[in-house]
Structures are given as C-alpha cells and as structure tokens.
Amino acid sequence: MSNVIKINDFDAKELDVYARLSEGQLLNRHEPEKGIFIAESPIVVERALDAGCEPISILVEDRHIKNQAKNIIERCGNIPIFTAPFDVLTGITGFKLTRGMLCAMHRPKLKTVEEICKDKRRVAVLENIMNPTNVGAIFRSAAALNIDAVLLTHGCSNPLYRRAIRVSMGTVFQIPWTFIDEKEGTGIELLHNMGFKTAAMALTDNSVSIDDKNVKSEEKLAIILGTEGEGLHQNTINSSDYTIKIPMSHGVDSLNVAAASAVAFWELGK
C-alpha cells in the first residue's frame, strides 16, 4: 500500500495530532469546523466510521497492518497510514495503544437540541460533568440501557475527548448527542416545550425514588445528572417536574455519577 508511511522521526509534524496537540487544540474552539478527535482501537474506529465520521490519518502498530487493521484501512481510502513497532509508538504517544491503533478524524457538525430529541422518549441531560471518564461511562450506560439521546451543558467535558471516547467504547458515535446553547442553561424550558417532563437526580427532602410510578409512566422523560460533589444547580432542581433519588443502604449517601446514571437508566429506560 503506497499510503503506508513508516515512522523514523518522532518529531515529524504529521504526528503532532497524536503526540503533541492538547485536547483543547484538537477541539479548536475558534474554528470548530476544523476540529479533530482521536479514536482509539479498531472497534471504536469502526463505530466512528459507521457513524459517518471522516478519517484524516491512522497511526497503527506495524504488525496489525495486514490483520486486525486491514478492513479499517480499506474503508478509509487513500489517507496516510503511519506505522511503527509497538515500542516506538508507545514512545510517541506516551502510553500503550489499545490494540495498536489510533485514528485522527474530523469532528462532525453538531445538530440542534430539537433535531436530536425529535421522536425520542428518554434522554439524559448532563450538567457540568467535567470528568471525561464519567462522561464516557455515562454514554456507555446510555447506549446499553435504552436512553435515546444525550444533551450536555457547555460546562461538560466534550464527549469526543480521547479518554471519553475510549471509556465509552465508541458509544459516543452510537447515541445522538449535542450541546445545549449556553443561553438555555440546562435546557429545561426547551425540553418542556418539546413535551418532555424533567427529572433531576438530587438528594432533597422532596426527592422520590427512581422507581416512582408517576415518573416511570411519563411518556417523554429527561433525566438530569449533575457533576461530582456540587451536584445540580438549585435552579435546575427547582425548575424540574420531579426530583428523584436512588435509595441507599449502609449509610451511603450517594453513588458516583456514572454509577448513578446506570441505575437510573436501567430503571427509567424500561
């Protein structure tokens, strides 16, 4: 394959996207239409391709060129395929590649909240969840447990950060998602206008259990989750139709937000 390029120079400019650019630089906030993300591992790259994401280049361990990377390379056309032995790639990226592959891709244009939520029954709303590991884990639970879409406030970590993609196992490409316009806050009024009832996950005197029959019977429901520690804004709680909680035992007051999302999605996504 003429587009396979063996790496000899760690400082080659073509490798900046994998080795030296920060997540903020990849995101390119000033020109988001030029933003890039990195998909890691064959299964994640395949899910990104299936979602219509456009590849730019691939960085792959040389021994995988003719086996587990073969089909992906064929799908990607004539883009550059950078390759080197395992120890060389580890030195470039600073960590062991998951199954020996990274793929740089163009960030897709985000849809509006209305487009994302059209004909949806259950959506998750993430308010200022800044840890990419939690964001990725929530997406994985959403995909597995019947959540139709995910909305994020601008205080959240971007779902296309490398770690979020990796933790989600590529489900960020399977679940429709977008960011809520900053002037809409958590988007509760917008959701109400689309016919959704909103359920804020918070520990208050008025919280009901997530298995409350009224909550579960809602035709269209948005489940709102907040960041670790601080939780949801009080305005979000006050504006929601329900405040819900997961019953705890042994004196435990709460779960990690990713774990809590899985429990809530299982109960309310049925």
Supply the CATH architecture of the largest domain: 3-Layer(aba) Sandwich
Radius of gyration: 20 Å
Quote the distance from N terminus to C terminus.
48 Å
Number of helices: 12
Spatial ordering of strands, largest sheet: 8-7-6-11-9-12-10
CATH topology title of the largest domain: Alpha/beta knot
What integer is the average pLDDT? 90
Total number of β-strand segments? 12
Could you say how many structural domains there are in total? 2
CATH class type of the largest domain: Alpha Beta
**What's the assembly state of these chains?**
single chain
Shape: elongated
Give a quick account of the main beta sheet: strands, pairing sense, barrel closure: 7 strands, parallel
Protein name: RNA methyltransferase
GO molecular function, one term: RNA binding
Pfam families: SpoU_methylase (PF00588)
InterPro entries: Alpha/beta_knot_MTases, Ribosomal_eL30-like_sf, rRNA_Methyltransferase, SpoU_MeTrfase, tRNA_m1G_MTases_N
Structure description:
Helix content is 31%, strand content 20%. It has 270 residues and is of the alpha/beta class. It has two domains: 103 residues, 2-Layer Sandwich (60s Ribosomal Protein L30, Chain: A); 156 residues, Alpha/beta knot (3-Layer(aba) Sandwich). It starts with a strand and ends with a helix. It comes from Eubacterium ventriosum. One of its GO terms (biological process) is RNA processing. GO terms for molecular function: RNA binding; RNA methyltransferase activity. Pfam families: SpoU_methylase.
